[in-house]
């Protein structure tokens, strides 16, 4: 049986923490940043955990 390939788009977007949780970058930091408040930009720039509904799908894409 062939090996499961890692999804190349997913491996660029998600990181697995030491305890096995999934981290991702929040959206909304590409353009129109001069119109956003500094507080909002600072909040969006932080990493976030993947929601519980998506964990199974993302782990499958990462071959875990």
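^ structure tokens above, recovered residues below v
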């Amino acid at each position: 049986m062939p090996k499961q390939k890692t999804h190349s788009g997913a491996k660029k977007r998600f990181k697995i923490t030491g305890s096995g949780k999934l981290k991702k970058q929040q959206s909304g930091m590409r353009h129109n940043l001069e119109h956003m408040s500094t507080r909002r930009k600072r909040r969006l720039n932080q990493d976030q955990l993947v929601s519980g509904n998506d964990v199974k799908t993302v782990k499958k894409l990462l071959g875990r």
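Strands lie at 14-16, 22-25, 47-49.
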